[in-house]
Amino acid sequence: MPPTDVILTGVVALFGLAFLGAGLYVASIGVSRIQVARGLRAAGPIPLSEVADSSGLVEFEGTARATDEGTLEGPLSGADCLAYTVSARRRDGDGSSGTGGDGGAGSKGISGPDSDGSDGPSGPTSLEDTDGSGESWQLDGRASASTPFAVEDGAARVAVDPTNAVLSLDDWETTQTPWLAAADLEAGAHDRLDAIGLSELERDATAESSNATATVRQYREQRLEPGGDVHVFGGSVVDSGDSTRPVTVAGDDWFEVSVGDRSSVLPERRRSGSMYVVFGGLIAVPGAGLTIAGIVGLVSTLLL
Questions:
Q1: Residue 285 scores a pLDDT above 90
Q2: Among residues 95, 155, 221, 290, which one has the fewest Cβ atoms lying within 10 Å of its Cβ?
Q3: Are residues 130 and 207 in the same domain?
Q4: Where are the alpha helices (DSSP H) in the chain?
Q5: Does the pTM of the predicted model rise above 0.70?
Q6: Residues 54/222, Cβ–Cβ less than 8 Å
Q7: Residue ranges making up the domain that contains 75
Q8: Contact of 159 with 67, CB cutoff 8 Å
Q9: Are 259 and 284 contained in the same domain?
C-alpha cells in the first residue's frame, strides 16, 4: 500500500468535501432569499400602528409627508419632493443610438438609487428607449436622491430613512416630467443637472459645431412628492421611537420605496435566490462526486 496512493485519495476526498460544502453554502443563501421574498410577499402590508412591534422585514403603506429634514428640489421641475430619479437618453442626429437592443418607451422600472444602493449619477447603458415614432434612444445616465420622510395613515406615523432604499418608479406616472430636450430646458434646470453630474451641454455644443449629425439628448424626472401615496417593502425597525418621535424604519438590499403596490426588489431577490441555488448545485454536484471517489479510493487503498 504505497503512501502516495493514500495521500492522493485523501487529497481528492478533501477537495470534494470543500467543493460540496461551498456548493451547499451558496445554495442555502439562495433558499433563504427565496423564503424571505415569499414570506414578505405573502404577509402583505401591515397597519402603521403595528410596525413598532414587528420583528424582521416589514411592509406598509400610507401617505408620504415631509419631516424636519426638509425636501429636495426636482432637478428638472424645481418642485419640492422627497425623492427623485432623473434619467438621460440620447440618439445621434441620423436616428441611431449606438449599441444595444430595443426597449420600451420611457424604460419604466429603472430604479434609483442605483442597484448597489448608492445615490448619484450612473454611466451610459446598452439599454434603449424606442418612442412612439419608432426612433431608438440609448439610456445615457441616471441620478437619484432621497431625503428622510414620514408615512401616515390617519392613525399612526412611521419615519423612513431611505438612504439604502431602491426607489421603484413603476407607477410614478402622475409625478414625472415628459422627456425634454436639453435645448428646451430652462437655465435653472441646466444648473441643477450640472450639480448632479448629468449636464452634457458642453459636449452637445461641441457635437453641434463639429458634426452634422449632432447628438440629441433628452431628460426625464420622476419623483415622490409630499402628500403622495407610498408603499414601503422590506425595511426593518431601527428605532422604536417614543412619545416624542415616531418609529423609524430603514433597510439594506431588501429595502424598497415605491409609489405603486408592486415590488421590483422582491421578484429580483427571488430570481437571484434561484440563481444562487442553481450555482450552488453546480458546485456541489462535482464536489459530491469527488468526495465519493476519494472515499472509495481511500478505502480501497487501505483494504486491498
A1: yes
A2: 155
A3: yes
A4: 3-43, 187-195, 201-210, 265-303
A5: no
A6: no
A7: 40-273
A8: yes
A9: no
pLDDT at 201 over 60: no
| Grid coordinates belonging to 1 | 500500500
Q: Are residues 15 and 115 in the same domain?
A: no
Assign 102 a pLDDT band (cuts: 50, 70, 90): very low
What distance in Å separates the CA atoms of residue 228 and residue 226, rounded to the nearest whole number?
6
CA torsion, ordered 191, 147, 83, 240, to nearest 10 deg:
180
Residue 213: which pLDDT band, with cuts at 50, 70 and 90?
A: low
pLDDT, tens digit (0-9, with 9 covering 90-100), for 230-277:
989 888 888 888 877 888 999 887 888 888 777 778 888 888 899 999
- On the CB side of 78, CA atoms within 13 Å amount to 7
Torsion of Cα atoms, 197 then 201 then 206 then 212, to 10°: 120
Which residue shows C-alpha cell 450639480? Answer: 195
Same domain, 292 and 243: no
Whole-number pLDDT of residue 24: 95
| In a shared domain, residues 264 and 141 | yes
In angstroms, the CA 238 to CA 240 distance is 7
Pairing of strands 149-152, 136-146: unpaired
Are residues 161 and 239 in contact, defined by beta-carbon separation less than 8 angstroms? no
Q: How far apart are CA 171 and CA 267, in angstroms?
A: 16
Are the C-beta atoms of residues 16 and 284 closer than 8 Å to each other?
A: no
Transcribe 250-274 into DSSP letters: E-STT-EEESSS--SHHHHHHHHHH
The total number of structural domains in the chain stands at 2
14 and 140 in a single domain? The answer is: no
Is residue 112 within 8 Å of 220, Cβ to Cβ?
no
On whether both 15 and 122 belong to a single domain, the answer is no
Q: Is the domain of 29 the same as that of 116? A: no
End-to-end Cα separation, the chain, in angstroms = 8
**Closest by Cα among 175, 1, 2 to 80:** 175
